[in-house]
Design brief:
Blueprint lengths: L1 H45 L6 E8 L2 E8 L2 E2 L21 H4 L6 E4 L3 H4 L2 E3 L8 E3 L2 E3 L7 E7 L2 E8 L14 E5 L3 E5 L34 E8 L2 E2 L5 E3 L2 E6 L2 E8 L6 E3 L2 E2 L9 E5 L7 E9 L4
Antiparallel strand pairs: 1-2, 2-3, 4-20, 5-8, 6-7, 7-20, 8-19, 9-12, 9-20, 10-11, 10-19, 12-15, 13-14, 15-16, 17-18
The protein binds magnesium ion.
């Protein structure tokens, strides 16, 4: 009898331990689920998945005109009350050392006839752009210029000078552009004492983002862009799954700080800009002919590994 009681006591102890373990495991699972739920809700509340884009169609003179708003600001908004001009800053002195191509860089243009061969017209034919004093100069009606080599994510150094004689105003003064993958434009404009809509001034990611500051030099002076670009990625269905990212330094000042590009930069209308459209993994470096003789020099690229 005594033996039976001892055995029973032992079983009770084992069962009690097992029940306790079960209770502990259940409690741990519940706690984990609750933590996960809390983390998800916190992320949803505080994560910014990019600017809010809103579109409106207005009828004007019998035509439908698209109005696009990025974080509540109309594309190409000119009213400084609604979209303030970026503050004007003193450009940093030209840094000859950091302007030199580093090891591993692909030199696209170094002022020589030899490197002019790295470029072509957009139809693949010879370019009409001219080699003037060691610089590539755009020719009115000559079309865009593009590199024969194509790039995805990369670092780009490029120098430019708007015409010494500052003719025209707004978008009509010293207009050109530098395009990554042949389509994402960093605006080139004479923005020295020349007001235009901020998302279209020198250094703007055209129509999408104004520069943080206006670091422009005067007409005819050499300026630089140092760009770190991460290309967008699209899925099979053509939807962008990773947006392009820009980090841009203009004359030594950061004007876009690891900025995620919300869409395309193609002019779609007076208040509207293009959307992402699926394209390949690589594209050329392209410069715009906008009718003004803008010059370029010292162009090199360091391809970045895809992550
Ligand atoms: Mg342009």
């Amino acid at each position: 009898m005594g033996k039976w009681f001892a055995q029973r006591k032992k079983w009770n102890a084992i069962n009690l331990t097992a029940d306790l373990r079960k209770y502990e495991i259940n409690a741990m699972i519940k706690l984990s689920v609750l933590s996960l739920l809390f983390a998800t809700l916190t992320c949803a509340l505080f994560a910014k998945s990019g600017p809010a884009i809103r579109k409106e169609i207005k009828e004007e003179n019998g035509r439908n005109v698209e109005y696009m708003f990025i974080d509540g600001i109309k594309v190409h908004e000119k009213d400084p009350e609604k979209q303030p001009q970026p503050p004007v800053v003193e450009p940093k002195p030209y840094d000859a050392k950091s302007s030199k191509p580093p090891k591993g860089a692909i030199v696209l243009f170094d002022g020589t006839q030899k490197t002019l061969k790295n470029w072509q017209a957009t139809n693949g034919g010879p370019t009409k752009w001219k080699l003037v004093d060691g610089a590539l100069e755009s020719v009115r009606g000559g079309g865009y210029l593009q590199s024969k080599k194509k790039f995805g994510s990369c670092k780009l150094h490029i120098e430019f000078a708007t015409p010494r004689e500052a003719k025209g105003s707004g978008q009509g003064r010293g207009n050109s552009g530098v395009f990554l993958m042949g389509q994402y434009e960093i605006q080139v404009l004479d923005s020295y004492n020349n007001i235009t809509y901020p998302d279209g001034q020198c250094g703007a990611l055209y129509g999408r983002a104004k520069p943080l500051v206006n670091a422009s030099r005067g007409p005819g002076e050499w300026q630089s862009y140092d760009v770190t670009f991460h290309r967008p990625i699209f899925n099979e269905a053509g939807k962008v799954t990773r947006k392009a990212k820009f980090h841009v330094i203009h004359n030594g000042h950061v004007i876009h700080d690891h900025l995620e590009l919300s869409g395309g930069t193609g002019w779609k209308g007076p208040h509207s800009i293009s959307e992402y459209k699926k394209h390949g993994d690589k594209g050329p470096i392209k410069m715009q002919d906008h009718g003004n003789p803008v010059r370029f020099r010292n162009v090199w690229v360091v391809p970045l590994p895809e992550v």
